[in-house]
């Protein structure tokens, strides 16, 4: 097709075309919404948008059916029947907000921690977190605890940023791209566009994933690894690189803590910590003068090995020496790890060899002088053109934090961070750990009718920052930032309902959820969670979780368990802010943010959740939401986006600031800001000067640019933390050498999981079950046509995945006599499900898998009760418990990473046996009633036509 023909196809087919931002996944692509007769008729990609450049996937195009879904809620609802019955009556917004204000106000007055406020995959966490902080409850977090906290925490603590929304491969220049465990729903447009560029240039693409679908299907090499062993593979590659001396020594000396001296004084409170001078500066050994000097000493040539004596008589060694000694151990040799990973020795050694060859035999250079933070002038950017990307396949294991740190260690060892051809940071990252807050939520941080003294989420610098009381009991309902999961930087949403039901560490009065389908897809132990939501105290007859407020745009399974439902708008009916304070749409070469705005007005009695939250903040007279005299500061979320300032001159949006709209990053509020965004395609982009585009962690020009933009008030360079001192502090506490001392019940797991150098250990759930009884792994992946469970109500996307089979490796099918369409029982230590199977060859031979978020409960999402998603679809969640199996010590731990609390969805071990043919998957539950008034719902099937059911 010629360019002229492409332009012709893009001419408006409607009365008006309005440009906004897609919300069908988290790519945040630009879209053109065609409107005719006041209705949305067509959605296409915006060719001027910097993220997708006009490319739009099936999800984005199907956004029209997200908007016209029969599952949309129509008005506020008050429960009138038992929980789970779906029996509601519609009420006015005045009544709904009065009820919510009464419930929330009583809790705030008496004991604010009795409110648990948790949000799902929304994109307004800077607002929801601010609201919860001003309310004063310690119990707030978003969905990251059961999605990606291992990725974020490991990345930020190691390199100052992370995969996914904090950085991207240098698609234009990389020569070798290695992807670990990424499903097709994440970052789909940018990744597809990037892979196409690789293919056009002849660059090699390697995918490490137990399942060969989607991205893996077009990879040049597919490495079908056994789930949970990625870290072992990575450390074996590092072993090979160290043996071959294929590491970038200059890069390590300049940009990492490899030369920092680590105190060698076993049995003392500072063993394994960095040697520091009186001003707190880390110490290094200078090889020319043979002296111990502070980091950053001008002209110092630092040593990476050797044992030196400090002024106080103690000895210390560079952290790189500890690193080399650890990974040169033969236990990491390919021959030693091949069986555990399920890979051939030649595959492991070949991957290491290819990484070394491309990194060191094919470096690339960009002729651009730049100056580093030490004032040294460089004449060019030199790059190692190897890039990596990873997501939930690494993250959703109980060893995921250390595995992800291992991958970042590999990147750093070859010098492939933020250089041409490598992984590149996206503003406002990188940020050093010191730029992030510590968590707030201990008793001294809050009180009745008082704001929390700081943000809920952050990074502890050591055990002293944990949110526990004097007896070590958790301050938060999810037990985040306690000894159970000390560095749970995103909270532990998957534990909220179970802990609240058990009253452990204390009971709550109100559970307030937004876009979090905790009764179904977003919970482990789905059947058990439903019972917890329905369970009553026999002594009082009251629900164990007394009050549940839920906000969503659609009739998900969770709606049926709410006592009060606040109906949200669709993404095409409201304002949203894709902010630099939250999750922006930046690219490595540009600072970017975006908005959504109401391209159509709601035709139902619904309100955007963010506006409702602002209204509740004003009714509760929360600081920051009223003017001190009880008058609301903001009339709605659009007003908040424009006028709110987190710091003087720093607001949610970076573009068109100042009275004239000519300021970027810093500047006074501009009342015309949203109109300027809309005129610009609903996004803003500020190009990063070429002198500042690479080595952002140590580039003086970039650091100055970041200060001008308002990311920091002073430069914040990042030193990559290969050896993580914070983890060692926890080990010292577990050894009883550092205050506060870890409880004896937690000491062994801290010593095992908190190695300051990236480590691998067998996934906890796998280690605690009988491997002979449950010989197979079972995992889920999200398909390209869905994102989490967001496509559940979408008529077009549902036709792509109406049901989900369990994919079974060919050899297992042969052994059990299974053929496509047969039924099988899948059992774990916790439960059993009956599902249909399909044979698959392109999968790890010990791994069963299925698409996630396809199975639905009958009656939910506006679907017919006989919809195949409900009759043939299923959830693996029924096999997964939120707690690990009982240990010999009598304790049951959260089924999570012991460092971050990340839900360990992928540690599941199962058995399979052939079952008699059936009509429906099992288990099945009683159908849900459609909440609110039943009425016909128009569904636009194709342009210009309507069908009414």
How is this structure best described in words?
With 949 residues, the protein is of the alpha/beta class. It has 27 helices and 36 strands. A hairpin with a 4-residue loop joins strand 31 (823-827) and strand 32. Helix 6 runs parallel beside helix 15, helix 9 packs antiparallel against helix 12 and helix 9 (230-243) crosses helix 13 (345-361). The longest helix is centred in the N-terminal third of the chain and has 18 residues, at 93-110.
Our estimate of the beta-strand percent is 15-25%
- Report the strand count: 36
Number of helical segments? 27
* Largest sheet descriptor: 7 strands, mixed
**Overall shape:** globular
Observed structural traits:
949 residues; alpha/beta; seven-stranded mixed β-sheet; six-stranded mixed β-sheet; 17% strand
Helix and strand topology:
Blueprint: H1 3-9, E1 16-21, E2 30-36, E3 39-45, H2 58-61, H3 63-67, E4 77-79, E5 88-90, H4 93-110, E6 115-119, H5 125-135, E7 139-141, H6 149-159, E8 167-169, E9 176-180, H7 188-201, E10 204-208, H8 214-217, E11 221-223, H9 230-243, H10 249-255, E12 261-264, E13 283-286, E14 291-294, E15 308-309, E16 315-318, H11 319-327, H12 334-341, H13 345-361, E17 364-366, E18 370-371, E19 377-378, E20 381-383, E21 386-390, H14 392-395, H15 400-413, E22 423-425, H16 496-502, E23 510-514, H17 526-534, E24 547-552, E25 564-567, E26 576-578, E27 590-596, H18 609-619, H19 637-643, H20 673-679, E28 683-687, H21 700-709, H22 725-734, H23 744-753, H24 764-767, E29 776-781, H25 795-798, E30 806-809, H26 810-816, E31 823-827, E32 832-840, E33 847-851, H27 868-871, E34 909-915, E35 938-942, E36 945-948
Parallel strand pairs: 6-7, 6-23, 9-10, 9-21, 10-11, 23-24, 24-25, 29-33, 30-32
Antiparallel strand pairs: 1-2, 2-3, 4-5, 4-25, 8-22, 12-16, 13-14, 15-16, 17-20, 18-19, 26-27, 27-28, 29-34, 31-32, 31-34, 35-36
Helix pairs in contact: 5-18, 6-15, 9-12, 9-13, 9-15, 12-13, 22-23
């Amino acid at each position: 097709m010629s360019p002229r023909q492409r332009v012709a196809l893009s001419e408006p087919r409607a009365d008006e075309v309005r440009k906004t931002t897609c919300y069908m996944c988290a790519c945040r692509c630009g879209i053109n919404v065609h409107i005719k007769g006041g209705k949305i008729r067509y959605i296409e990609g915006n060719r001027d948008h910097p993220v997708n450049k006009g490319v739009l996937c099936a999800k984005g195009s199907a956004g029209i059916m997200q908007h016209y879904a029969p599952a949309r809620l129509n008005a506020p609802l008050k429960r009138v029947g038992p929980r789970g019955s779906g029996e509601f009556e519609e009420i006015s917004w005045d009544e709904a907000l009065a009820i919510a204000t009464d419930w929330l106000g009583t809790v705030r007055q008496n004991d604010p921690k009795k409110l648990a406020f948790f949000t799902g995959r929304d994109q307004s966490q800077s607002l929801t977190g601010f609201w919860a902080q001003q309310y004063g409850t310690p119990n707030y977090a978003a969905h990251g605890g059961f999605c990606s906290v291992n990725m974020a925490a490991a990345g930020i603590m190691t390199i100052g940023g992370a995969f996914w929304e904090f950085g991207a491969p240098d698609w234009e220049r990389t020569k070798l791209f290695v992807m670990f465990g990424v499903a097709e729903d994440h970052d789909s447009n940018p990744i597809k566009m990037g892979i196409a560029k690789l293919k056009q240039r002849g660059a090699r693409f390697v995918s490490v994933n137990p399942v060969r679908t989607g991205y893996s299907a077009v990879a040049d090499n597919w490495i079908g690894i056994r789930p949970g062993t990625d870290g072992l593979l990575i450390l074996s590659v590092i072993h090979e690189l160290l043996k071959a001396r294929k590491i970038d020594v200059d890069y390590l000396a300049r940009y990492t803590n490899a030369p920092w001296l680590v105190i060698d004084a076993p049995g003392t409170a500072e063993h394994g910590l960095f040697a520091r001078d009186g001003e707190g500066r880390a110490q290094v050994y200078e090889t020319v003068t043979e002296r111990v000097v502070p980091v950053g000493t001008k002209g110092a040539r630092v040593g990476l090995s050797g044992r030196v004596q400090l002024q106080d008589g103690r000895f210390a060694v560079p952290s790189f020496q500890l690193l080399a000694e650890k990974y040169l151990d033969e236990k990491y040799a390919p021959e030693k790890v091949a069986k555990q990973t399920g890979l051939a020795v030649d595959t492991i050694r070949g991957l290491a060899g290819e990484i070394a060859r491309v990194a060191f035999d094919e470096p690339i250079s960009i002729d651009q002088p730049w100056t580093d933070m030490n004032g040294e002038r460089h004449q060019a950017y030199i790059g190692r053109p190897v890039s990596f990307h990873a997501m939930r396949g690494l993250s959703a294991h109980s060893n995921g934090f250390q595995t992800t740190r291992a991958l970042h260690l590999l990147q750093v060892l070859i010098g492939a961070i933020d250089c041409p051809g490598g992984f590149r940071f996206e503003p406002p990252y990188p940020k050093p750990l010191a730029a992030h807050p510590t968590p707030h939520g201990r008793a001294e941080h809050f009180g009745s009718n008082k704001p929390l003294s700081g943000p809920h989420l952050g990074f502890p610098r050591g055990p002293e920052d944990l949110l526990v009381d004097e007896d070590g009991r958790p301050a938060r309902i999810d037990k985040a930032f306690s000894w159970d999961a000390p560095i749970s930087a995103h909270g532990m949403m998957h534990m909220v309902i179970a802990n609240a039901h058990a009253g452990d560490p204390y009971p709550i009065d109100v559970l307030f959820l937004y876009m979090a389908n905790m009764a179904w897809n977003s919970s482990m132990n789905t059947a058990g969670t439903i019972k917890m939501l329905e369970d009553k105290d026999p002594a009082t007859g009251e629900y164990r979780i007394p009050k549940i407020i839920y906000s969503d745009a659609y009739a998900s399974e969770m709606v049926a368990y709410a006592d009060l439902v606040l109906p949200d708008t669709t993404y095409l009916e409201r304002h949203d802010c894709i902010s630099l304070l939250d999750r922006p749409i930046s690219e490595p070469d540009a600072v970017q943010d975006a908005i959504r705005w109401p391209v159509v007005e709601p035709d139902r009695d619904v309100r955007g959740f963010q506006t409702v939250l602002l209204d509740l903040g004003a009714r509760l007279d929360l600081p920051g939401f009223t003017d001190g005299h009880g008058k609301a500061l903001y009339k709605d979320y659009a007003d908040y986006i424009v006028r709110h300032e987190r710091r003087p001159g720093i607001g949610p949006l970076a573009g068109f600031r100042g009275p004239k709209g000519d300021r970027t990053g810093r500047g006074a509020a501009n009342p015309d800001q949203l109109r300027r965004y809309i005129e610009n395609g609903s996004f803003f982009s500020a190009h990063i000067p070429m002198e500042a585009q690479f080595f952002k962690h140590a580039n003086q020009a970039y650091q100055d640019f970041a200060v001008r933009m308002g990311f920091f008030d002073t430069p914040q360079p990042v030193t990559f933390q290969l050896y993580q001192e914070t983890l060692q502090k926890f080990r010292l506490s577990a050894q009883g050498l550092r205050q506060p001392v870890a409880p004896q019940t937690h000491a062994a797991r801290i010593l095992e999981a908190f190695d300051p150098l990236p480590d691998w250990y067998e996934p906890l759930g796998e280690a605690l079950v009988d491997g002979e009884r449950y010989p197979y792994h079972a995992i889920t992946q999200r398909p390209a046509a869905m994102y989490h469970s967001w496509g559940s109500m979408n008529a077009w996307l549902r036709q792509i995945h109406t049901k989900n089979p369990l994919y079974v490796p060919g050899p297992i099918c042969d052994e059990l006599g299974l053929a496509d369409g047969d039924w099988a029982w899948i059992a774990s230590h916790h439960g059993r499900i009956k599902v249909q199977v399909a044979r698959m060859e392109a999968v790890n031979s010990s791994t069963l898998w299925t698409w996630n978020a396809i199975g639905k409960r009958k009656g939910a999402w506006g679907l017919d009760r006989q919809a195949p998603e409900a009759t043939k679809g299923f959830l693996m969640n029924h096999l997964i418990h939120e707690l690990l199996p009982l240990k010999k010590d009598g304790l049951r731990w959260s089924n999570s990473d012991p460092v971050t609390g990340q839900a360990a969805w992928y540690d599941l071990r199962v058995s399979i046996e052939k079952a008699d043919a059936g009509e429906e998957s099992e288990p099945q539950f009683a159908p849900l009633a459609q909440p609110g008034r039943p009425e016909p719902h128009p569904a636009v099937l194709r342009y210009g036509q309507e069908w009414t059911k």
